Amino acid sequence: MSKQTYRVCFCCHRRFRLPVSEAPEDIKNLFELYSENGVMTAPQLNKFLLEVQKEHNATEEGAQATIDGLKHLNIFHRKGINLEGFFKYLFSDNNPPLSPSLGVHHEMTAPLSHYFIYTGHNSYLTGNQLSSDCSDRPIIDALKKGVRVIELDIWPNATKDNVNVLHGRTLTTPVELIKCLKSIREHAFTASEYPVVITLEDHLTPDLQNKVATMVTQTFGDVLFSPGSECLSEFPSPESLKRRIIISTKPPKEYLEAKEVKEKEKNDAQAGKNLGDEEAWGKEVPSLKGGTLADHKQNGGDDEDNNDEEDLDDGDKSQHNAAPEYKRLIAIHAGKPKGGLEECLKVDPGRVRRLSLSEQQLEKAAITHGKEIVRFTQRNILRVYPKGTRIDSSNYNPLIGWMHGAQMVAFNMQGYGRSLWLMQGMFKGNGGCGYVKKPDFLLNTGPNNEVFDPRASLPVKTTLKVTVYMGEGWYYDFRHTHFDAFSPPDFYARVGIAGVPADTVMKKTKTLEDNWIPIWNEQFEFPLTVPELALLRIEVHEYDMSEKDDFGGQTCLPVSELSTGIRAVPLHDNKGEKYNTVKLLMRFEFLTL
């Protein structure tokens, strides 16, 4: 089909010529440079892979296999490939921006506290935080995507003789705990063989805690990592815990009576009803500049979600009625010590623990105690969770946690939007195994016991140069009137960095009118002070003069794992699912200073 017709009114039509996907000028010039007489042979393709793509393990045998793989396209030459074949290869799934051959390549023998861990929040909810169903389905979906930390809120059932999972004091419908545990057992290692942590928010009597202990033990058997009732002096490594399941919760206490219901949580949730996403694909990720998120003021006040974690008591006063079998299950002890922030962040050389802070608590703490948080997370685990006003299951900027060393930045995985895209982008790294080794600067101490200061101004380490050549695939993945009822789409791309405040920026290409195959040919440069934490954000939108711009795809990629050279970058929908054919042709280069 060479032309496309759009109806303007009942008697008028407009016809548009459909463009053909052609190699950009840069690609033509490179082909000329690495070919002879219009043909690129295996040795010449191998030279291109070594010199332009920086694929240092490339071989002539591999180049020949690539050429042989193009035979079915009827663009194969007896001695090699022509320009069309070269272009098809560069714009194919065989030329991705992240090399699948890397697999799990980070050191995996360090303690768990040395890793960012793919973490879910209220993992059982199918939708919003107030009235959606609870189910094991979101848990299964999360595990299949590589999430390694599953959160379950456990409560007595109506007859107080069994245990349900639900978001307490809301209208969410419960699901039985045993169903969730069995689904975790079945799907825990579908996407990754590295350990799954189950964080339990416990609202049970001691007899029901004993019942949970029996369920957990019988369901997981030898897969359960259970070091006994004593706190660990150091966390084990992901490597040593392969295909193991770990329980993390606060030590048992007597059942909390209904008088402890926090009305504030309900009020906060009600106040948050009007804070939904502004656009179909979610709000812009809040800025971290100035030490607070951009939406901190508009939501007002702290979300002291005291149900998320109870105070720890150094003595045994609170554990008179503790269920010993339940206590022995806990491998990662959680809780907040009595006292202020200084007490919370104290590092005990004899034991390690998990501390939870809401996103707002972390924002405030980061202003005055940034270095102390970094020091705490070198040995202990910090979990950050969404504030209670996020009743729509939206999320926050995860960089506030990562730049302070927080391992468990807990997200509502059933939602969507730009913040979740960043989370998905971070954990595309290290083979998608759900564990990403923290940068050394977050783990090291200096000669005077100093640690990384997240608020310090740092020099530029490197500059990422990005060329956005073109895009294609929308014609095949969308109805021809999806973007515009009267003409082909008007696409533009947004490219930028999510990272520490000094590195964070978004830039935009020009808008190309009436074109299913936009060819932008634009370059952008991004100076990076902390490339280790930088994520490359890529979005495509369709300009709409009268309404909000339409969403045309997105992806987010860890800068530290980008393959240099010219790459085909597949785009995903707003929930992170990959489109069938939509992709961009881009080039990535790191400029030396």
UniProtKB/TrEMBL annotation:
Write out the transmembrane intervals: none
Q: Indicate whether Signal appears among the record's keywords.
A: no
Q: What is its EC number?
A: 3.1.4.11
Q: Name one GO molecular function term.
A: phosphatidylinositol-4,5-bisphosphate phospholipase C activity
Needed cofactors: Ca(2+)
Reaction it catalyzes: a 1,2-diacyl-sn-glycero-3-phospho-(1D-myo-inositol-4,5-bisphosphate) + H2O = 1D-myo-inositol 1,4,5-trisphosphate + a 1,2-diacyl-sn-glycerol + H(+)
Q: One cellular component GO annotation, for this chain's record? A: plasma membrane
* Annotated signal sequence range: none
Membrane topology classification: Peripheral membrane protein
Using the UniProt annotation, give all residue ranges assigned to the region (Disordered). 257-320
Location of the C2 domain: 444-573
Is Hydrolase one of the keywords?
yes
Biased-composition ranges, Acidic residues, are 301-314
Give the first-level EC class, as a single word.
Answer: hydrolase
A Pfam family the protein falls into: PI-PLC-Y
Question: Where is the sequence biased in composition, kind Basic and acidic residues?
Answer: 257-268
Q: Where is the PI-PLC Y-box domain?
A: 356-442
GO BP: lipid catabolic process; phosphatidylinositol-mediated signaling; release of sequestered calcium ion into cytosol; response to stress
- Designated name of the protein: Phosphoinositide phospholipase C
What species was this sequence derived from?
Answer: Quillaja saponaria
